[in-house]
Specification:
about 750 residues, Growth Hormone, Chain: A, four-stranded antiparallel beta sheet
């Protein structure tokens, strides 16, 4: 006997999602499963008239009707809208971390916090977006109106990145990110559900399955294109006199958001708009709240078997039973945020990690933010492989049940972070040694055509330095006064017509790298004392400094091999200059003095001596080693994390949707999105605590938390009592509006004609 609730899709069907493939994008797969199942059951039991007003005699005849219904033209406007929004979301997100660190000069921890707060707010606001859509505006108006908030946020970020406008970039970026989180979160729950509304069920269930496949495809297509394109616009295009072009990299995706609204609005005459009928999230919250309040008043006078039973005076018994089942499933959700805490760091910590690695492939340079491209590519490969290869192999070793697969997905995520920690340990070996408290560094650059012996009043600080060479001492100890005065004496050892430098005393400060430059052609200051910068360049690009012992008034030019002048300065300026990686010639008054290839992540000093008028001799010394570890060492952790994502996300949603009552699907979707939000909260907390000096230690901490979390999950899963959805009442479930009316709540949102 057919169930009444199979004859039409329940209004609590899973809400749509933002075009993210993780934690929410995967839910489209589950919507296909859920809606297809409902539709197929309805198709099998449909008694609606056939084309000639005669009842369908069998399934084949009913299926024949499906072919007569054209594919809704409105779907193509919704799909186009999703492609444009997907392009923007991933394009902006891909370069966001580098923009925050390289342009706005935030440190790695603060950059990570901002990135994850942005993601977190978007997921938290999904619940409110579902309430607005289902209880007030309806899906069409929610998508159309609230998308303008998203546009405003994107415009602010873009305008803040345009240098000639001289706008407060930090303020514009923070406000813009807040508006994008607001717009994205409020719109997110309505999109794919609005697409599902365009189909007539059960007749078009197969066409609706095609829609969700198209939906998933355009999300990944937009992601792939934007993750590829925006780093190229950022790094390879010069605009407004800058070496990179964040204004264009943000501006192109922003234009796609505007296009998405225009396209979506054009399709309005074709849309089927269902009026809001109340929100199940609100209804469940009211039921739980009523049960708690009633239990507090009646627990001694009217004891019940289950605390939710206290709500039966006001709410339908079937609803209460459904909430009980929902609560059991939600207990399984409690450990899940840890997975998303690890997964979402692909866009933050892992991108920062990639920025310290070498992506130079000769004629092609892999940019650190382009490594995120691996995730969507691997997803498209792994999803069919799981069905054809991975799951049969897992079944062979006894891993068949969904909760087992979900646990294994979490373990894979922990392994991915162990791998990233090992990679980080190897990276740390390439990092420069920085001065610490009570310690100072000294570098002496000899710009003369003579060798010198240098002695000081400090024990052990006596050394020789050859012509155009550098001397380094990283172990100068400073007492509690934080200052140390050292007298240097210079003695010529070799060379002709060597300059006699006078004795001189210099002050060393703690935690500082100092440099001394010998340049006798500077008749005013033959001994130049200053501070060296030796840390890894925060923007990743190489830094160079020219120490030129040349006649006064000379000009220094840096030209790339194409002959283009990249930088010009007076020879006595001695500032550090940021350049793109590549081959360069250094010219003094148009005379070639040196040539060097500058690699990503390095700091270089060019020492130049003018031997005779217009004749130059030079040497290039590396202050900070360039990135030497190949960016391809990141591939294993991306592969393992994507394996974890497919197994964890898809399996988790399929299991929970299968277990939850039909009326609870939208509530479950909201709770799933909240686990992603809480996962980002975990990252924010750990980043703010600044527990470790070593990033590798933090990666290992996350891996350890993930493994412990999966042990807890296995314990919770072992105690879980499976629900049999087929055992639910034969009665058709009430809509939120009907249930509220039964409870005496007539203040449900009125029907709104979209």
């Amino acid at each position: 006997m057919a169930k009444k609730n199979d004859n039409k899709p329940n209004n609590g069907v899973a809400q749509g999602t933002e075009p993210e493939r993780t934690g929410n994008g995967k839910s489209t797969v589950d919507e296909i499963h859920e809606l297809t199942t409902i539709g197929e059951k309805s198709l099998e039991n449909s008694t609606e008239p056939a084309g000639n007003d005669e009842p369908a005699s069998n399934v084949s005849e009913a299926e024949g009707q499906v072919k007569k219904l054209p594919f809704p033209k409105s779907i193509f406007f919704i799909i186009s809208y999703e492609f444009c929004r997907g392009f923007h979301y991933y394009g902006m997100r891909t370069i966001l971390v580098l923009y925050l660190s390289r342009q706005l000069d935030y440190d790695d921890d603060t950059t990570t916090v901002i990135f994850h707060v942005y993601a977190m707010l978007g997921y938290f606001l999904c619940v409110f977006g579902a309430i607005i859509s289902d209880s007030w505006l309806g899906k069409f108006k929610t998508i159309l109106y609230l998308s303008f908030i998203y546009v405003a946020g994107s415009a602010l970020v873009t305008l803040g990145a345009v240098p000639p406008l001289n706008l407060p970039a930090t303020t514009f970026t923070m406000v813009g990110l807040g508006l994008m989180s607001l717009g994205s979160g409020l719109v997110k729950p309505s999109i794919s559900a609005f697409g599902g509304d365009q189909f007539k069920l059960p007749e078009q269930v197969k066409q609706m399955t095609t829609f969700f496949s198209m939906y998933y495809f355009v999300v990944n297509a937009g992601s792939l294109i934007s993750i590829t394109a925006t780093p190229i616009l950022r790094d390879d295009v010069h605009c407004f006199g800058e070496k990179d072009c964040y204004s264009l990299a943000f501006g192109l995706p922003a234009s796609f958001v505007v296009i998405s609204i225009v396209v979506f609005a054009i399709g309005r005459p074709l849309y089927k708009n269902k009026p809001p009928a109340g929100n199940m999230v609100v209804l469940v919250s009211k039921t739980i709240g009523n049960a708690i309040a009633t239990k507090w008043r009646e627990k001694k006078t009217n004891p019940r078997e289950h605390w939710l039973d206290y709500a039966d005076k006001k709410y339908d018994r079937q609803l209460i039973e459904d909430v009980k089942v929902l609560m059991r499933v939600l207990v399984l959700y409690l450990p899940l945020p840890v997975f998303w805490a690890l997964f979402d760091q692909q866009g933050s910590r892992w991108t920062i990690q990639a920025a310290r690695m070498d992506g130079d492939m000769g004629s092609w340079n892999i940019k650190p933010d382009q490594m995120q491209l691996l995730n969507p590519l691997l997803i498209l490969v792994f999803i069919p492989l799981y069905e054809l290869v991975f799951y049969p192999l897992l079944a062979f070793v006894g891993i068949r049940r969904p909760l087992q697969k979900l646990t294994l997905g979490g373990i894979f995520a922990g392994i991915a972070f162990v791998v990233s920690g090992v990679v980080e340990l190897s990276l740390e070996d390439t990092y420069p040694i920085l001065p610490t408290a009570g310690n100072a560094h000294l570098r002496v650059y000899n710009g003369e055509n003579c060798d010198y012996a240098i002695t000081s009043n400090l024990t052990g600080l006596n050394f020789d330095i050859a012509s155009l060479d550098m001397f380094v001492n990283r172990s100068i100890n400073i007492d509690s006064t934080n200052h140390l005065y050292v007298e240097f004496e210079f003695t010529e050892k070799a060379g002709l017509n060597c300059f006699e430098f006078p004795k001189q005393t210099f002050a060393f400060d703690t935690t500082t790298a100092h440099y001394l430059f010998l340049n006798s052609k500077n008749t005013t200051h033959p001994l130049i004392w200053g501070q060296d910068t030796i840390s890894k360049p925060s923007r990743g690009y190489p830094f160079v400094r020219t120490l030129a012992n040349v006649q006064a008034g000379r000009q220094i030019e840096w030209r790339n091999k194409k002959g283009s002048i990249e930088h010009t300065e007076p020879a006595n300026l001695r500032n550090e200059t940021e350049l793109k990686s590549g081959d360069y010639d250094v010219l003094v008054d148009n005379t070639l003095a040196a040539s060097e290839y500058l690699s990503v992540g390095g700091r270089y000093t060019i020492i130049i001596n003018e031997e005779t008028t217009g004749v130059y001799k030079s040497n290039v010394v590396i202050i900070t080693e360039p990135n030497s570890m190949s960016i391809f060492w990141l591939i294993p952790q991306y592969v393992i994390m994507t394996l974890a994502e497919v197994m964890f996300s898809v399996t988790g949603l399929e299991f929970s949707y299968a277990q939850a009552p039909v009326s609870m699907k939208s509530v479950l979707q909201a709770c799933w999105l909240l686990t992603v939000a809480f996962g980002n909260v975990i990252v924010v907390i750990i980043a703010e605590l600044k527990l470790f000096d070593s990033q590798a230690d933090e990666f290992f901490l996350f891996a350890g938390i993930m493994f412990v979390d999966m042990i807890i999950f296995m314990f919770v899963a072992y105690r879980y009592k499976p629900n049999n959805p087929n055992s639910q009442s034969e009665a058709e479930p009430l809509t939120p509006a009907e249930t509220n009316k039964k409870a005496g709540n007539d203040n449900v949102a009125k029907t709104i004609d979209d």
